[in-house]
Amino acid sequence: MRTILLAALLFTFTTGFAQEMTMTCCEGAHMHSGMEHGLKNLDLTPTQTEKIDAIKMETEKSIIPVKSDIELKRLDLDKEMKLETPNRDKVMRFVKEIHDLELKIKQARVDQHLKVNSVLTSEQRVKFSKKMHKGTKMDVTEGGREHRVKIIHKSAEGCKGESGVRAPCDKHKTE
After folding, report:
1. Other CB atoms closer than 10 Å to residue 78's CB: what's the count?
2. What pLDDT is attached to residue 24?
3. Which of 29, 40, 53, 83 is the most exposed place for a label (fewest CB within 10 A)?
4. Coiled-coil intervals in this record (predicted)?
């Protein structure tokens, strides 16, 4: 009975803090950032591209240690949950710490979006905004964790043009 209760509690914690990812319908399990999709076909100048690349690099560098901290906290949480009598205060502290770290990542992504937005012209901002809000969301499980995934449907041209190698997905073969 205790094992079932602990498993249910752990499941609740891990699914409650699901991460959001984006993938195109043509990429299968390969995850693709929504920002990359939003920036395609905006006719960016070389200066804009350089600035945006620097913004993305800065954001990714700042997120790496936070992701590492999240994984370490999850390991600590798992260890505590496997004890015969887990300490509720410790468990709740780990859950809050994980949540706070995940919030840091989301804030960094929002900040990145705002910085990129400031580099774009007003016409590019309109296109960027429309592309960023396109897509379907669904939950998938990968590696034992549940993720919210945004699926972006592309035209056959977009599927072929993505890598120059990959054929269009089944949905776009007939388009």
Report:
1. 13
2. 44
3. 29
4. none
Phi, psi of 169, deg, nearest 5: -70, 170
- Give Cβ neighbours of residue 163 (< 8 Å, ≥ 6 apart): none
CA distance 143 to 108: 24
d(CA 24, CA 20): 14
Q: Quick one: average pLDDT of 84-93?
A: 96
Top pLDDT among 153 and 8 is at 8
Domains of the chain: 43-119 (1.20.120.1490)
Give the model confidence (pLDDT) of 122-155 as tens digits.
888 888 887 776 654 444 444 555 555 554 444 4
Burial class (CB in 10 A: 0-12, 13-18, 19+), 166: middle
Our CA dihedral for 174, 136, 29, 76, rounded to 10 degrees, sits at -170
Strands 145-152 and 136-142: antiparallel
CB neighbourhood size of 46 (10 A): 7
Residue 119: pLDDT above 70?
A: yes
Are 93 and 107 in contact by the 8 Å Cβ rule? The answer is: no
Instruction: Tell me the pairing of strands 136-142 and 19-24.
Output: unpaired
Instruction: Give the mean pLDDT of 15-36.
Output: 47
Q: Which helix (H) or strand (E) holds 140?
A: strand 136-142
